Amino acid sequence: MSEKKRPLLEELKKGPWPSFVKEMEKSAHNSKTAELLDLLERSYEDKTGHWKHGGIVGVTGYGGGVIGRYTDLPEEFPEVREFHTMRVNQPSGWYYTSDALRTLCDIWEKHGSGLTNMHGATGDAILLGTTTEHLQPCFNDLSEAGFDLGGSGSNMRTPSCCAGPARCQNACIDTLDLCHNLTNTFQDYLHRPSFPYKFKIKISGCANDCVASIARADLSIIGTWRDAIRIDQEAVKEYAAQGYDIQGLVVDKCPSQACTYNAETQEFTVDNPNCVRCMHCINKMPKALRIGKETGATILIGGKATIVQSAFLSWVIVPFMKLEKEDDYAELKDLIERIWEWWDENGKVRERVGELIYRKGMREFLKAVGLPPVPQMVKHPRANPYFFWWPDEIISSASGDAEAEAAAGAEVEK
Ligand code: HEM
Ligand code: HEM
Ligand code: SF4
Ligand code: SF4
To answer: Where is the Nitrite/sulphite reductase 4Fe-4S domain (predicted)?
Structure first.
C-alpha cells in the first residue's frame, strides 16, 4: 500500500461538505485505490489530468460493457496503468436484495479496486478500476452470480426505468416489466455495437419522469392516461378544511387552465380534454386526485446531452400508445425497430437519432417510420407560411386525370 503523503487531497477533506477523498480512502486498503489517490494528488500538482484514451478492451462475445481507462504515467503508477470500468446491467428500478449487493461488492473486491459509483447516469452499476487480465474472470464471476454487463459505445444502452408500480401510486404503466422485457428482447443490440452511436431507452411511469427520460433518452417512454383524472371530492373538502390554498397552489398553477375549484361548494373539477396530464394537481393533492384508469404511454424521441449538436429534450411522436403485456409490447417494439432501421441507414458516425431528425427534418422521419403527423408533435407555431406536400400525395389527389398523374409521376422520378 502507498505510504505517500497527499497534502493537496488533504485540503479536499476540510470544510463542511462530504469529501470524496475521505470516501475513496475507505477503499485504500486496496492497492489500486491507494495509487488512484496518489495519481489524483499528482494531477493536482501538475494541474492536469493523467488519463488518456486507450484501446478497446472487453470480454468474449461482447462488444460493450467495459470502458478502457489508462493513465499516461504507467511507469510511476503501475497499479493504475489500467483502470477499466465495468458496467453491470442493473435490475429494473434498481431493486436489489442486500445479498445481491454484497455478492456484487465481493466480486469487485476480488477483481477490482473496490470502488464503485453505483449508479452512473447510464443506469448500470458502475464498477471502477480493474486490469485487462481481470476482465474475463470478473465477468465469469458476475455471470455465475446472475449478473450481465450493460451497454457502452455504439450499442443500445442498458434500458432503465423508475420505481414504477412496485413503489408508486402514479405508475400508469408497469415500467419494471417493460424495462426487463425490452432489455431481454434487445440483448443483441445491448452487447454488440451496431448503431451509428448510443441509443438510450428510459421509462417513467408518469409525467413526473423520475428517470428524467425526456432529457436523457433517445427514446423516452412516459406513462399517461386518456380518460379522466379520478377525483375524491370528500378528500378535496379535507384539504380545504386544513386551510390548503387549492385555488392558489393547484388551480392557478395548472399549465392549461384545465382545473377549477369552487370555494363555496368546495368542489374540484377537471376539464379533461384540455388537461395536458402534467401531474401537477395530482402531486399537490395526492389524497384527492388520482391518475385515470385507461392508461398507456406517450412515446418521445431524441433527448440527449451535447456532443455533435447541443442538448435536446425529446419530442412527442406518439401521444398515446397502449402498452399491452399480453402481446409482448409488439406495437412499441415494432416502432423501435423501424426507428433503428431509418437511423442506421441515414445516420452519420456519432450522430444520435435526435440529431438525424434535426438534420433531415421531422417530416422525413415520420414518413420513414410510418407515423402520422399529429398536433401533439408541434413544439411551437410555425413562422413559415408555406405548406409542403409529398409528390406522391399530389398524384393521389389528381387521380382520375391520367395525364396529370403521368406528368406528376414523371416529376417524381426526376
Ligand atoms: C428583387 C425584388 C424582390 C425581392 C428580392 C423580394 C424578396 C422577397 C422575400 C425574400 C420575401 C419573403 C419570402 C418568405 O418569407 O419566404 C418576399 C415576400 C413577398 N414579396 Fe417580394 N421580393 C421582390 C419583389 C417583390 C415585388 C415586386 C412584389 C409585388 C409586386 C413582391 C411581393 C411580395 C409579397 C406579397 C411577399 C409575401 C409573400 C407571402 O408572404 O406569401 N415582392 N419577397
Ligand atoms: C377589399 C380588398 C381586400 C381585402 C378584404 C383583403 C383581405 C386580405 C386578407 C384577409 C388577407 C389575409 C391576411 C392574413 O392572413 O393575415 C390578405 C392578404 C393579402 N392581400 Fe389582401 N385584401 C384586399 C385587397 C388586396 C389588394 C388590392 C392587394 C394587392 C394589390 C392585396 C394583397 C394581399 C397580399 C399580398 C396578401 C398576403 C399577405 C401575406 O402573405 O402576408 N390585397 N388580404
Ligand atoms: S415517474 Fe411517476 S410513476 Fe415513476 S416513480 Fe416517478 S412519480 Fe412514480
Ligand atoms: S394534470 Fe396538469 S394540466 Fe391536467 S388538470 Fe392537473 S394541473 Fe392541469
So the answer is: 152-370
